[in-house]
Amino acid sequence: MKEKYLEIHQLGKSFDTPLGPSRVVAGFDLTLREGEFVSVIGHSGCGKSTVLSMIAGLTRSSEGTMILAGKELVEAGPDRGVVFQAPCLLAWLSALDNVRLGVDQVYPGQSRAERNEIAARHLRQVGLGDSLHKRPAELSLGMRQRVGLARAFALSPRMLLLDEPFGMLDSLTRIELQDVLLELWAHDSKTALMVTHDVDEAVFLSDRVVMMTSGPEAHVGEILEVPFPRPRDRHALMDSPEFYELRERLVSFLENQGQHAPAPPDRAPRSAARPGRSSGFFSANPPG
Amino acid sequence: MSDLSDVPILALHDVSKSFGTTRVLSGVSLQISPGEVVAIVGFSGAGKSTLIALLAGLERPDQGRVTFRGRELRAPGPERGVVFQNYSLLPWLTASENVSLAVEQVFAHRPKAEQRAQVERFIQMVGLEHASARKPGQLSGGMRQRVALARALAADPEVLLMDEPLSALDALTRGTLQDSLERIARESGKTIVLVTNDVDEAILLADRILPLSAGPAATLGPEFRVNIPRPRERRALSSVPEFRHLRSSIVDYLLGSKRERRASDAATQPS
Question: Which residue in A266, B113, B202, B234 has a CA-CA distance of 20 to 30 Å to B252?
């Protein structure tokens, strides 16, 4: 177990605009232990997905360094498995072939049967043992995202990067998939960094939750330690005041950040923000 | 509130419904008392919308009966207002005109001035005074759903049926609309049937929550009563032990029904 598995130092990203460069992310520092599960929360547009995308090597950073397992990260590679909000499956391939596409790349030395088995095993682990040969169109949205999770784990990457992996799902399917992810993770504790806007999800899944300030020049604001032992019991946690205390800290942070950022026009009609009634700027409910 | 009246305003009696060879609902019974807010919570695709369509009279059951004040229900009617997830507004009419359309239908015999006042009152209730002259294309999703809600309420239905009214909205907008719905439910005193996949939303709004088991052949599970006093403050709910307990119990029930469904599917499917 390495204490410093992923090291991010003074990471920054600027975009050129007609008014000069805009520093979206600046001075972002974070270190992950090996096997740690860390979530990043922040307001929409604060730059959290940009950070994830830079770590994945899909967006070039403007400043700073990133080191994974002692190696500097320069470009995208199979050592980092990425799960996006949309599973991005190939429509003409079965679930098995979609997973095998990556497996074939990562394990070229293995036999076809062995590669098949790696893909099938991971699909069984996400509860899709009966649907190996179904195509994406025959699968529900939740099942497709299960394929996305199986695909990421099947490549046995050094770490997992999850960008709002359950953002497209309804709140119940979302909870179901969180359990699937935890189960996969229990078998194979990957170091994981997940972007989410769901405070329940962040607390339930993570060892630590990183709260990002609102941009521009977004960086790490606060870090919340989640001390609950694993494996986690959803029922007990959802029933316990401690869970809600942690959740409340995330909500308060986001509310305070919200006051500094300009409110998106017409998002919240005036009547809903009337003083004296619920002041909820940010939903404390699990979205989705 | 069920002790206020003996005759349910709306009821399903052992109702089943299939589409093609797929049995969507199986043996569903439900009784809704006047003034009650009932939430039906279930997974996407479980048959929640079918349930609302049956209550609205948009679909007929294959078996069993749907009754309104004890009489068999055969068609949609203005005493049952429906709010859909996709708003269903006319794009060439302003917010006010969309609401007005419903008011003109239902209150055709009333003077024009009274009709206009009715429209204004409900545009105001949903907080859209500043946007009443805009067309749906110029409104955000949350504002469109406010128009749809105003339209349904302005027709003064006896029952308001809401089919995932907030599911298409982002978390922030959903939160503020949940607050509005909580207030409107209280102020209007309407009988409301709300279908949702959001357990927190159900607890915030309902007197009674009925989980719909995972489909196909979905059926209603044990009822959960919500005794949290009103007005309910969304942000403060998590400090209420009853909220926490309901939340974990309802989620448990629903996830359990899904696991059972998957297990029985796996057992019957040749592999």
Answer: B234
Other beta carbons within 10 angstroms of residue A207's beta carbon come to 17
| pLDDT exceeds cutoff 80 at A261 | no
Backbone angles phi, psi at A127, to 5 degrees: 80, 25
pLDDT digits (tens, 9 = 90+) for B1-30: 444 457 899 999 999 999 999 999 999 999
Q: Going edge to edge, which strands form the sheet with B63-68?
A: B22-32, B10-19, B63-68, B71-72
Chain A residue closest in CA terms to B183: A277
Classify residue B227 as exposed, middle or buried by CB count within 10 Å of its CB (0-12, 13-18, 19+).
exposed
CB contact under 8 Å between A268 and B200, yes or no, is no
Query: Chain B residue with minimal CA distance to A263?
Result: B172
- For an interface test with B, the pick among A124, A146, A171 (most B C-beta atoms closer than 10 Å) comes out as A171
pTM over 0.90: no
Beta strands in chain A (DSSP E): 6-17, 20-32, 37-41, 63-68, 71-72, 80-83, 159-163, 191-195, 208-212, 220-225
Nearest by CB: B174 against A130, A235, A283: A283
**For residue B2, with 0-12 CB atoms within 10 Å meaning exposed, 13-18 middle and 19 or more buried, which class applies?**
middle
Q: Is A252 on the interface with B (CB under 8 A)?
A: no
**Per-residue pLDDT band at A175 (split at 50, 70, 90):** very high
**In A, residues 35-74, which contact B (CB 8 Å cutoff)?**
44
Q: Which residue bears the tokens 């294959």?
A: B62
**Token digits for A249?**
């800290």
DSSP string covering B50-101: HHHHHHHTSS--SEEEEEETTEEP-S--TTEEEE-TT----TTS-HHHHHHH
Distance from CA of B42 to the nearest CA of A (A): 8
The alpha-carbon gap from A172 to the nearest alpha carbon of chain B, in Å, equals 6
